[in-house]
């Protein structure tokens, strides 16, 4: 079962360490669950842990969060258990952005027992002139292997981490979070290249980690699965918080996609009410099996919708004291959910005591809302979110329409709020510009540019955003003036600058330039879209009542390995993958690498892929050696 | 020379990583010098590094700063060189606040070659509910050993780290930075206890690290050396930035004090113009030798004072175009300093190119200031601080008076600025309170409490300060109301609260309570005093022209060991300090400690100390085996 040719990999994503860390009730949830996840890694004796981004909730995690994270990783990832797989790729390429550009378990000064590999997410992405992100601190401390990093904003060349255990070889690809529009554009422009090993190209299990929108939020604001290379075997999709960890086969591309989902509930929407799991992935040759491991420390979450006008027998808007009756009705519903929570929690000592409860009340049809404060008071000791149990909505018709189209009501409701917030910041900037004498001090800046920079400042605590934008615009203007050979009198210069700027105001060009200014000046990107994405993240599900009932969650589904080229793995003899040699390999800080050369694989056209599939796909190669065995429950 | 009984310890303090990190010229200075310091530790093959606090300049260091720090420490402090000293004290006590309460070099998962021990300073002190500080992140990553931590704000019991190398035994004491007034009070109230090893009490070399004001800034705003226990042998004094590293004997207490000074210039005052060094301390038995190591990467700093009225031959206030002449005069002085800088820098490739220059111009006697902007323009490419080369002052008489009393003029000049800043914050708060309807929303808060909390928020980016103060005041008021058994009508309560608060307004009691509120609510302290201390830090020197001329700085002074009880060290046989055993000891994460029991030593009265000294001090025990040997220059 756990033989010397089988990789065991724990997969998890969107752990969001530090989410609500100040909350008296929920403050420790993310730390407790991270501890549980890493403990699972130890107990299952995995070869490594693979994370799909957003390990941290904040771009600049608090000291406490960073401290907790390091503590857990040092506790579980260090020790004497030997690591029995090799790395064949050029680590200096895989980890080129690191000050210690090699995998942590090969560093002779660190006694790593479980290496962790991670891409960054949109929450913990690189910012600032140095392009550092929160997990780079962990990487510098030797606790994590940060891969899937790219410095270019125009093209991607993804060089896989090549791993070998016994006769099994994995090519691990990753892309750290990039704004969806940009990555979409890169794919469209054929600027994404996946390098493949030249040697025995089809003998590798190709594993890919991505942290982007999977569900469509606008034309180019997501990454269609069809964009991804068809030689891949399994895609681990981060960013989306709903647990859909059972791999789903993409029938066009013939790869599987697993979406582990977040390990903490960051919004009270139906997607987060789905029972949360991490995965134990086994890979042997080209075959794989993914075992779901239910997380025990997740706070329970119950969500229910009621539509007042659907209960004419109980009350009508004209009734006297209808508000009290509605309140009693809602209270009853909450009590029901609390009872259900209590019942389900029985016997599971790890589940936090107070559940999250959300009752969405559609009060259209003449009803009025009541004071939720008093309502909350009744549940203050029994619910983890007493302040926002109730959510009043009044768009019954709209909601129904949306339901039919498979969209989420909550997403639309939440949208205006964030836009309002953004407008407010932009308004402030506009007001400032109107007051300032435009042509004196601030002639170089456009309102829009300033607005974006301020937004950056607010969203990411990115203190340099404003300064960097100013620098960029200054340089651009100087270049323009130099090109125009403007005479150096102040009046002339002022006039030229005004013309230069006004010619761009409110044009698409300005928009693009501001975008590029922020991208280039910071060598990185603004996250304003992604931040909002997050609220919308779980919104592609119909707004059904999603009370947890996934009792079958512990039964590991049988994953059909695709097996293309799997027989090829036997071509490698035992002599160069001897596990003794692997162990000896462990403590060599300048590893004697068996570098495998790579060749480019550009995403081909659809027809090419299809024909390729036609040749290689072999349905008979189904393989699941571990079916039905689930020893990890305790 | 470097025998098996001699401890070699690198001492340094106030490295202030991240100071001016955004500055285009000086931004990397602290990182470069930290690299130099740690490289010196490696090249001198020291047993450990001892830091005196303020490793970081900011309480919440930027990601870049933390990353740079970890990079340097991982690079220099890890490796295969064996560590050949033992730790005899109970590490769980020494590092009780740590999640990994043992010295890093005994952790079997970390291959430490040079352990670093540090107390925290006032810049990087613990804050927040968790009481974590910046170096705790390093400690959690296994890169530093943070000692001298106390949780109590009323009393201190200092349990030393007991170290043994061959026959030499060191008891290492430390106190992380505490507001001077508080520590002063603790000493006065006899609440500071230093524990001493019971076994062979006088056989230890007693080394103490402190990070407080050494020079007097007000009655209780410093720590007199006389407060410190007289059994100490050497005190390493951090916080003061002027390098006075040559140990000075305190004739009353009969210990030596070394003040290494900062390794970066954080204020353009004379104390910082003194050549900067770190120390290589050798301890053998009770004898010590301290070798000064000049730092090569320090940016040069020249400071000069001119008094215009002392040059009647050159110009008088009535002269036409006097301002241009004064400007020429100043320019000449700056040129002189630049030439001197260039001359001194020759042949030292590590010294940064552009020096810091400060010309203090006393323009009293009818002269006028001129535009420093234009003046700066002339030196913009040659000076590291073009914007603030000139400093106009006009208090000739005051200055002379102060000089006589040994106080610093600069300090007084800088004082108003910070007070103005503070007043501005307080004014904002007052204004807010005046606008708010006092008895409705904000009746629980005093202006002063709010002001302090806001100050905390501003100074330390301590986001919880305001919230915590409110919580504290709320609880206090609730307690008061409970005790008074006030009837629960809103009017009654409002009235009582108003009385409660007004009774305290502007009283000393209020002041104390606010103080305690912040201390207790945060379990820690406000730094408002310490922050200002820092500007005053170097101010105890007469404001002389302090152009560097310490050419003799490389000649190591002979330090006379006091030797009290030093012969006692030979009582320990070789069998339990065998260096082979020590090496084997290295990789045992649960060390088989030879715990040495401790007994309390409360600071006795002066007369007691004197008599004790009389008995024990033996002047014949002078020892300096390494006199004149300085191989570390390269």
From TrEMBL, chains A, B:
One of its GO terms (biological process) is telomere maintenance. It comes from Sinocyclocheilus grahami. One of its GO terms (cellular component) is site of double-strand break. Its cofactor is Mn(2+). The keyword Protease does not apply. Residues 594-612 have a biased composition (Polar residues). Residues 288-457 form the Mre11 DNA-binding domain. Residues 561-571 have a biased composition (Basic residues). The keyword Nucleus applies. Core component of the MRN complex, which plays a central role in double-strand break (DSB) repair, DNA recombination, maintenance of telomere integrity and meiosis. The MRN complex is involved in the repair of DNA double-strand breaks (DSBs) via homologous recombination (HR), an error-free mechanism which primarily occurs during S and G2 phases. The complex (1) mediates the end resection of damaged DNA, which generates proper single-stranded DNA, a key initial steps in HR, and is (2) required for the recruitment of other repair factors and efficient activation of ATM and ATR upon DNA damage. It is found in: Chromosome; Nucleus. PANTHER family: DOUBLE-STRAND BREAK REPAIR PROTEIN MRE11. Residues 526-535 have a biased composition (Basic and acidic residues). This is Double-strand break repair protein. Residues 536-551 have a biased composition (Acidic residues). Belongs to the MRE11/RAD32 family.
